[in-house]
Amino acid sequence: GLRWRIVQRYSELHQLDAIVRSRFPAEKSLPKFPAKKFQLFRVDEGLIVERKAALETYLQRLLAIPAILYS
Questions:
Q1: CA–CA distance, 58 with 69 (Å, rounded to integer)
Q2: What pLDDT is recorded for position 4?
Q3: What are the residue ranges of helices labelled H in the chain?
Q4: Separation of alpha carbons 32 and 1, rounded Å
Q5: CA dist 39 to 8, 15, 42, Å?
Q6: From CA 48, how far away is CA 54, in angstroms rounded?
Q7: Are 20 and 68 contacting, i.e. CB atoms less than 8 angstroms apart?
Q8: What is the dihedral sign for C-alpha 44, 50, 51, 56?
Q9: What is the mean pLDDT of residues 40-53?
Q10: Residue 19: CA atoms inside 13 Å, Cβ hemisphere, count?
């Protein structure tokens, strides 16, 4: 299938989520935005992989909503 590569900061995707929620307040099937897990002074590769997978799932579910996909 079609593959996309999106390079964005977590905060930018979180802002996108806020915009989508404000433009589609009646849309009940909006997926929950993945929580940000934060660890000071340490980069945890497992955490990065987990967040990437959660964000990918979020975007796939978001684009599965026709009103959002075609807006």
A1: 13
A2: 64
A3: 10-23, 45-63, 66-69
A4: 25
A5: 20, 21, 6
A6: 10
A7: yes
A8: positive
A9: 79
A10: 8
